[in-house]
Known about the structure:
Low-confidence stretches of chain A: none
Shape of chain A: globular
Mean pLDDT of chain A: 86
Distance between the termini of chain B: 31 Å
Radius of gyration of chain B: 21 Å
Oligomer: heterodimer
Helix content of chain A: 40-55%
Low-confidence stretches of chain B: none
Largest interface: A-B, 25 and 31 residues
Largest sheet of chain A: 4 strands, mixed
Number of strands of chain B: 0
Amino acid sequence: xxIEVLGTGCAKCKALHEAVQTAVREKGVExxxxxxxxxxxxxxxxxxxxxxxxxxxxxxxxGRTATAEEIGGLL
Amino acid sequence: MLxxxxxxxxxxxxxxxxxxxxxxxxxxxxxxxxKIFLLLTTIVFVVAIIRSYFSPExxxxxxxxxxxxxxxxxxxxxxxVTPFCSCSAVPLFIGFVESGIPLGVTFSFLISSPMVxxxxxxxxxxxxxxxIAMIYVGTxxxxxxxxxxxxxxxxxxKYVQDYVWEVKVGQAGIQEQSFREKIDYARNxxxxxxxxxxxxxxxxxxxxxxxxxxAPADFxxxxxxxxxxxxxxxAVLIGVPLYSNAAGIIPVxxxxxxxxxxxxxxxxxxxxxxxxSFPEAVILKNVLKTRLLxxxxxxxxxxxxxxxxxxxxxxxx
Lengths: 75, 317
């Protein structure tokens, strides 16, 4: 599984990145977590509001963060 | 009812004398704090639900079908309800421009979004009443629409950073949240926001209460009153480095206004604080060349100063 966190590096983006790491650890799933920070790659996903979460190439949500529990439910 | 509670707490339970300076200051503080937190909780929650229906992606779709004028008005209105944090300004700008939305229309959106701010609106409503709150929204929209049209007329497309035109935006297909999820999201959002801003509200109202009880009225009249023709541009200049926090500033301004500061000056100050921030300029530098950035700041600042003078003239009764 490949999880991408899209965000330019603001506080919210960092919070989401951490929540994703916690969720993956707690669920014990095999996942590669990538932090995408360059604008063209973020835009390539069709996302205009950061942070956004992409799981296996599919945009799950954008413009908000989520708790580790919520992300765990999505994995 | 809140007023009775504040009076009871301060004058009966604590036992300060009504009409005394500490008594009036504390009564003012308790009443205003309660009122603002009540308003903040309800309105922020409602706004969060409304916002969950307006993603930036949807806004882009709506705006891409509209040209100048109608587009500017629509963009300014959508700017109020479409959520985006300042770190999304760059992707948002690129996304808008890429889908063919005119530059001026994009700016109308970018101006109204931070300027017509729900927290500022609540604070104004709570402290000055709904009329001033509506004037704030109305003039905010006016500034966003006119500044956007002005920037569009200047044909400054060549002052957008070159790489912006090359970015290709993919298809998102983001799933819509269910109503249950929207409620949960709004509840979390309200809690997070209150957690973040409550100290500013308390400090702001506290300072306001202090000024209310203690500051001499003639001091401000001399510097920021109706008699000073430079009060408005001065308020705008002071507002620029003071980024965000309508929550902390408005209660202070309210007290200053009681002491003789004019409404237009206050409006201009708040608009400068929210729409002309230094961090915003740094972020926008990523997509705009200096010339356009300076033009943008200049036009918005001018529009704000005009609004300030306008209201001082209208409400000078």
